[in-house]
Design brief:
The complex is a heterodimer of chains A (843) and B (246). In chain A, α8 (248-283) runs parallel beside α11. Chain A is elongated and about 105 Å long. In chain A, β4 (102-103) and β5 (109-110) form a beta hairpin. With 843 residues, chain A is α+β, with helices and mostly antiparallel strands. Chain A is 56% helix and 17% strand. By secondary structure, chain B is an alpha/beta fold. In chain B, strands 6-7-8-3-9-10 form a 6-stranded mixed beta sheet, with helices on both faces. In chain B, a hairpin with a 6-residue loop joins β1 (4-13) and β2 (20-30). Classes of the chains: A alpha+beta (843), B alpha/beta (246). Chains A and B meet through α1 and α9 of A and α1, α2 and α3 of B.
Chain lengths: 843, 246
């Protein structure tokens, strides 16, 4: 009780410092909670179960690859003893392009439909479709559609109204013949159309992707289910088709990156807390000494300091969790429009899973306590004599000791880790570098202070010298401040460099892999996100247009390798490299495309290769609707749209043969050199008008659009600035202790004739010296860190050119030195304001 | 029975050529209820003597006995408990915790000893009232004058009912009027409340309130004088002694 009370009083007595320290903890916890609360919501928005009925009929069967298969499979199921009725279906999500989105009465748009192509003759034998209005589908129906009651109510559509939907053939007109009253699917609306029509709409002639079955009344469900699976052989599973599971890898990577960011922020926070408590212990030496003299045991003192850390940790964590939740809510609201525009999906509210709380509390409170522990142990060792004797600031006589030697060795080893060019090793290297620098800095303070001191003496002729002396007198403490700046600044440099590399790199990806003269883009940039695509007619029409030199397309199928989902993109090995190209990290670009056209060859992208340990020369067994097929990996590379998703690239011929897939999801067009641009564009636009599922862009329009999207990265600079705050706090704290410890000395200086201005300048000069040292090392570790971060990105498939920005480095130097001046403001004013007589009497 | 006894008490700071002998074989006995002032030029070892008697520092050789019990060989925890229960400290710079009120500061030793807060505060209020601070109970140190702060510190030193009060230049940071008041208070503590007071000071006016003055020079006792017990003002005597010592 007493501990807590005294701790609270002390914390209240130093409101500014308490607040600044709290910010350090709050920030880290906020990042961890915020991002972890967002990810499940996004995950949920992307990964959907396509069949609301899956758990309501006796049996639902779909392909493990999540792709379509032959209708004949339904007959196999029908013949299994115990199966009473079977209904083949084609169930697919349909992203509605902006031009065809259904508008709700409240102004929002319905951007995604779940289209269920059902056989009118058999569907009612396996499931109950209850009607609110109109009638069910009949065998004679072609362009009839059933919509859900919720959709009818939200949009005002009713029986007899017409509905135009995108189709692989362009568009298709439907008449609403009935309104169903089933329960709605979360986040999307379910509609029913005849199976044959669905096969045309999605360009899967004669194919289905779901089989629903009803068991005979007296059969054993488990036995029949097992018998069905046995009859079908491998490649089929019980349950409906799902979408978006290829996102799992990307989500995992994003989760990892954000958690790393949070941990770095909390670690930085821990460092600040360490410095704050160091300050606290120095400031309260006399208080602590007195407590010891009047009978406080060492344990009591330890408890006092730890109680303070605990309070800070608990409050900081609580506020951090709250702000994290608010941040998640804000970010989700902000992302809503982006997700709607580019992925045709909507998100729910943030979700906080118990483990996130555990992680936040563990890290928030744990790191605070740990950071407070070392200063608390130091406090424990404070002698009761401190209360009685005037403690003159002693000169630290520790120069290049054993620590510096170890530090130097660590730094050398750190540089050696760069040689093999492995990211993991380089990451270990940066840890060694930071620890090494921290150890070696005290020994370096003296020579560095001399070097920078010379520069400084140009501006601060007299004060610079005293400042230099002050720093070299306490190299240990000076080193801690300098390392605070080093760490803060290196994060700034690294993140800045990464953002710059990403912006530059992404644009390069866009220009290389989607750099054709014209593009037909689907509504969702996630190719598998409900895009309808077009049959081969559209590309044929485009190719026939005068002035068009070359046309190529991306096609899409889904597959599985040993239970891991993989999306398979089909490219034309001849035309694709002429118009665009993949970016390769392994494999020879000149021979790779030819290899794709030769037998079963596959190019896998970085994220898949990294997460599954796949490399060139390996063979992969892909599940296809036509059985397992063996592909040989010929290269590791990817394109802009799919770098985040586990993806393989095969020839379109193989895609058609193994996956029955011939739908173009994205079409790229190059103009002939001598053709009239306006005329070609007009012709293409006319074709695009017949396929509203595509948006037509010229290269320039597309690039503008992408630049606008990539500008979203600018928001990350705000995070950078927030990250910089902790190192500023550390600097202020260290300078403040410095001033406090030298109260009498400053009084003496004033007494012997130093003006207030000179004292202020002396403290500022000291701060600048520290800042310059910290900046120097901050740049070094920052560039190193950014190299690692860019390398880590390539590990998850995003190969970026490392952008080394001179402007950024100048900015970092400006920020570092700016911090020096800013950090000195309060302590310098404090020192200059000291009353001479009282300062002399101090201690 | 003596309350404080030092036997061949020696303290050497540093080693080898730079070694400085702060105290050299000091033998001194203080009886219960005595008010002893230790005087001498700076560097004579008077503060070191106080630290050793209070168990704040370890002697190089010799020993300190409190109530006939040697402090040598006591563990840190035992020394801490001893300080908490048997010794009260008064410092030159008061050393009050700035964020605590007068009552809370005074109650510290009791709280540290595990007493309930309410009881500790009651006892602290009693002592503060005796010190004439009944109307300043919930003031913070920065709301009190120097003299008042030192009274709070004295209340804190006495609240655990110690038998020995150690004061290190208790008036060193006060103006002369406040200093006189504090010195008179210390005398009252010794004479009326029968506590033993060992005070280090360099001010003869303050030392004159004691009934025994020990002069130290270069780490040895050069004079040990009893003043009259009747509270008569004997500053003149002290000044004469000091002149002789110098």
């Amino acid at each position: 009780m007493f501990h807590i009370k005294l701790a609270l009083r002390y914390l209240r007595g130093r409101k500014l410092r308490t607040t600044l320290t709290l910010i350090a903890i709050v920030f880290g916890v906020m990042i961890i909670v915020g991002f972890n609360a967002i990810l499940p919501a996004i995950s949920q928005a992307i990964q959907g179960n396509l069949s609301a009925m899956a758990d309501e009929v006796d049996l639902t069967v779909s392909s493990e690859t999540r792709g379509p298969f032959a209708m004949a499979v339904a007959d196999q199921v029908r013949q299994v003893p115990g199966v009473a009725a079977v209904s083949p279906q084609l169930v697919r999500p349909m992203a509605l392009p902006a031009s065809q989105a259904l508008v709700n009465k409240d102004g929002t748009a319905v951007t995604l439909l779940i289209v269920r192509g059902v056989d009118p003759a058999t569907v009612t034998e396996v499931e109950q479709i209850s009607l609110a209005d109109g009638r069910l589908l009949t065998a004679a129906d072609q362009n009839a559609i059933l919509i859900a009651n919720s959709l009818a109510q939200n949009t005002g559509l009713g029986v007899g109204d017409r509905l135009t939907l995108p189709a692989a053939t362009g568009v298709m007109d439907f008449e609403i013949v009935g309104i169903t009253s089933g329960r709605p699917l979360q986040g999307s609306e379910e509609v029913f159309i005849p199976l044959a029509t669905a096969q045309t709409v999605f360009n899967f002639p004669g194919q289905i992707n779901t089989i629903e079955a009803r068991f005979a009344a007296n059969s054993n469900a488990d036995t029949v289910r097992a018998a069905v699976l046995a009859a079908l052989g491998s490649g089929y599973k019980v349950g409906g088709t799902t979408t978006g599971s290829e996102f799992a890898a990307a989500m995992e990577a994003a989760n990892y990156i954000y958690n790393m960011f949070g941990v770095i922020a909390i670690a930085l926070g821990g460092f600040i807390i360490f410095i704050t408590f160091r300050t606290v212990v120095v400031e309260r030496r006399r208080d602590i000494g007195m407590l010891r003299a009047i009978g406080a045991s060492r344990k009591t003192i330890l408890g006092l300091i730890l109680a303070e850390a605990l309070i800070l940790g608990v409050i900081g964590t609580a506020v951090g969790i709250l702000l994290g939740y608010l941040m998640a809510t804000g970010l989700l609201t902000g992302m809503q429009s982006l997700l709607e525009e580019f992925m045709r999906t909507s998100v729910g509210s943030p979700t906080l899973e118990p483990w996130v709380f555990g992680l936040a509390i563990g890290l928030g409170v744990g790191i605070t306590l740990l950071a407070g522990l070392f200063p608390a142990l130091a406090a424990m060792r404070v002698s009761p004599l401190e209360a009685l004797r005037p403690s003159l600031a002693e000169v630290e006589r520790r120069r290049a000791g054993r620590g510096a030697m170890v530090g130097a060795i660590l730094i050398v080893v750190a540089f050696l880790t760069l040689l093999p060019g492995t990211v993991g090793l380089a990451a270990l290297g940066i840890l060694l570098l930071i620890v090494g620098l921290a150890l070696v800095l005290p020994a370096l303070i003296y020579p560095l202070a001399r070097i920078f001191g010379r520069l400084l003496s140009i501006i601060f002729a007299r004060e610079g010298q005293i400042a230099q002396g002050n720093l070299t007198r306490q190299p240990g403490r000076a080193a801690i401040t300098a390392s605070a700046i080093t760490i803060g600044l290196s994060l700034l440099v690294a993140m800045g460099s990464l953002i710059l590399s990403m912006q530059g790199g992404m644009m390069e990806w866009v220009n290389t892999t989607l750099g054709s003269d014209y593009l037909f883009m689907p509504p969702s940039l996630v190719l598998g996100g409900g895009n309808i695509g077009a049959n081969e007619q559209m590309a044929a029409d485009i190719a026939a247009l005068p002035g068009v030199e070359q046309v190529t397309s991306l096609r899409l199928a889904t597959s599985q390798i040993d239970g891991t989902d993989l999306q398979v993109i089909g490219i034309d090995p001849v035309t694709y490299p002429q118009i665009a190209g993949l970016i390769f990290s392994k494999g020879d670009e000149k021979t790779v495309y030819a290899a794709l056209g030769n037998g079963r060859a596959i190019i896998v992208n970085g994220i898949f290769a990294a997460q599954n340990g796949v490399t060139v020369g390996d063979t992969l067994t892909l599940q296809t609707p036509n059985g397992a097929q063996t592909y040989q990996v010929v290269a590791v590379g990817g394109d802009f749209l799919n770098f985040k998703l586990a993806t393989g690239y095969i020839s379109q011929a193989n895609l058609a043969q193994d996956f029955n897939e011939t739908t173009d999801m994205l079409v790229m067009v190059d103009r002939a050199a001598n053709a009239d641009a306006a005329q070609v564009a007009a012709g293409l636009q006319q074709i695009a008008a017949g396929y509203p599922a595509f948006t037509f862009y010229s290269l320039a329009e597309w690039q503008t659009q992408m630049e606008r999207t990539l500008a979203a990265f600018n928001g990350m600079y705000v995070l950078l600035i927030i990250l910089a705050i902790p190192s500023l706090i550390a600097l202020i704290n260290t300078l403040a202790i410095n001033v406090l410890e030298r109260t009498r000395e400053i009084g003496t200086l004033r007494a012997v004739g130093a003006t207030r201005r000179q004292v202020r300048r002396m403290i500022t000069a000291e701060s600048l010296l520290l800042a310059a040292t910290g900046t120097l090392f901050g740049l070094l570790t920052g560039l190193w860190l950014s190299y690692i971060m860019v390398g880590a990105m390539s590990m998850v498939g995003l190969i970026l050119p490392f952008s080394f920005s001179y402007a950024g480095i100048l900015l970092a130097i400006a920020v570092g030195l700016g911090f020096g001046i800013l950090g000195a403001l309060i302590p310098a004013r404090q020192a200059a304001k000291l009353d001479i007589v009282r300062a002399l009497a101090y201690e | 029975m003596s309350i404080v006894k030092t036997e061949q008490l020696t303290k050497v700071y540093g080693q080898g050529a730079t070694a400085v002998t702060a105290l050299n074989r000091i033998n001194m006995t203080i009886q219960p209820g005595e008010f002893v002032a230790v005087m001498g030029p700076s560097g004579c070892g008077k503060s070191t003597l106080l630290h050793l008697v209070g168990g704040l520092d370890q002697p190089t050789s010799g020993q300190v006995l409190l109530d006939d019990r040697s402090l040598s060989g006591l563990k840190d925890d035992d020394l801490t408990t001893l300080r908490r229960r048997q010794i009260g400290f008064v410092f030159q710079f008061f050393n009050l915790i700035p964020v605590l009120t007068a009552v809370e500061n005074t109650a510290l030793p009791l709280i540290l000893d595990g007493m309930k807060q309410a009881d500790a505060h009651n006892q602290a209020e009693v002592w503060l009232t005796r010190m004439g601070l009944g109307d300043r109970l919930s003031h913070r140190p920065d709301e009190l004058s120097g003299g008042q702060q030192q009274r709070v510190a004295i209340a804190r030193a006495l609240v655990a009912e110690p038998t020995l009060l150690l004061a290190d230049e208790p008036t060193g940071n006060l103006d002369s009027r406040a200093a006189d008041e504090i010195a008179a208070l210390l005398r009252q503590i010794s004479h009326e409340w029968h506590r033993t007071v060992l005070m280090v000071t360099h001010d003869p006016r303050i030392a004159a309130h004691a009934n025994r003055i020990v002069f130290l020079k270069d780490g040895t006792i050069v004079d040990d004088t009893r003043l009259s017990d009747d509270g008569q003002y004997e500053e003149r005597v002290v000044r004469e002694k000091m002149a002789v010592m110098a």
